[in-house]
């Protein structure tokens, strides 16, 4: 009877030992995972602190840059805006001082560069320089003419601008023909026409 009781009690002891072993294994696994998680969090936190110290966030007031057209690319993609705003034409017309500055710059380049290119027979450079300057002049002369309060003055300025553009086209044709005497003669005519139109709009 005593032996039977000993035998009957052995499985209970064995199961108790197994439960203890399993319980110890689970607690060890939890402790290991907890330690790993804690070390990972500490490592990430220290890395973030180091990165924040290495690359601080600086705040700049870019409202002035935006007013000068820094983010014009975003306006160009905005289909709700008028086409003149998307193309930048409205922004360019908004500053009369900048328009006058561009006109004077174009005039100085036409006066200084074209004659030298023609005399050296640099026909491609002469054509490109002429077309670069006239591309902005055509636009800026219209802007300056639109500022005239009197309708007759505005009409006269636009007519003078049209005459200047015709002189430029004649000069461009002479440059394409590579005719040096004709190009020099038509250059002087274009300069004179430009001086006349600028006198009426400035």
Gist?
Keywords: Chloroplast, Membrane, Photosynthesis, Photosystem II, Plastid, Thylakoid, Transit peptide. It is found in: Plastid, Chloroplast thylakoid membrane. With 202 residues, the chain is mostly helical.
Report what the structure shows.
The chain is built from nine helices and no strands. By secondary structure, the chain is mainly α. Helix 6 runs antiparallel to helix 7 (123-146) and helix 7 runs antiparallel to helix 8 (151-177). The termini are far apart. The mean pLDDT is 79. It is found in: Plastid, Chloroplast thylakoid membrane. Its main location: plastid. InterPro entries: PsbQ-like_dom_sf (IPR023222), PSII_PsbQ (IPR008797), PSII_PsbQ_pln (IPR054099).
Fill in the keyword field for this structure.
202 residues, mainly alpha, elongated
Strand content: under 5%
Q: What is the H/E order?
A: HHHHHHHHH
- Radius of gyration over all CA atoms, rounded: 41 Å
Helical content class: over 70%
Organism: Volvox reticuliferus
Main location: plastid
Pfam family, one: PsbQ
InterPro entries: PsbQ-like_dom_sf, PSII_PsbQ, PSII_PsbQ_pln
Walk me through the topology.
Blueprint lengths: L1 H53 L8 H5 L4 H5 L6 H4 L2 H5 L2 H24 L3 H24 L4 H27 L2 H22 L1
Subcellular location: Plastid, Chloroplast thylakoid membrane
GO molecular function, one term: calcium ion binding
GO biological process, one term: photosynthetic electron transport chain
């Amino acid at each position: 009877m005593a032996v039977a009781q000993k035998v009957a009690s052995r499985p209970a002891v064995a199961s108790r030992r197994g439960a203890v072993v399993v319980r110890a294994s689970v607690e060890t696994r939890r402790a290991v995972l907890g330690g790993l998680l804690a070390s990972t969090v500490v490592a990430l936190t220290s890395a973030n602190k180091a990165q924040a110290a290495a690359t601080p966030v600086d705040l700049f007031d870019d409202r002035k840059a935006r007013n000068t057209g820094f983010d014009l690319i975003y306006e160009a993609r905005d289909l709700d805006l008028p086409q003149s705003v998307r193309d930048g034409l409205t922004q360019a017309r908004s500053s009369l001082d900048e328009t006058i500055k561009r006109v004077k710059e174009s005039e100085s380049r036409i006066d200084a560069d074209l004659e030298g290119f023609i005399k050296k027979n640099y026909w491609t450079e002469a054509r490109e320089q002429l077309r670069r300057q006239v591309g902005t002049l055509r636009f800026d002369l219209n802007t300056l003419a639109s500022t005239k309060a009197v309708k007759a003055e505005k009409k006269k300025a636009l007519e003078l601008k049209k005459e200047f553009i015709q002189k430029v086209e004649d000069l461009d044709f002479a440059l394409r023909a590579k005719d040096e005497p004709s190009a020099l003669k038509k250059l002087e005519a274009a300069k004179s026409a430009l001086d006349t139109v600028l006198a009426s709009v400035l």
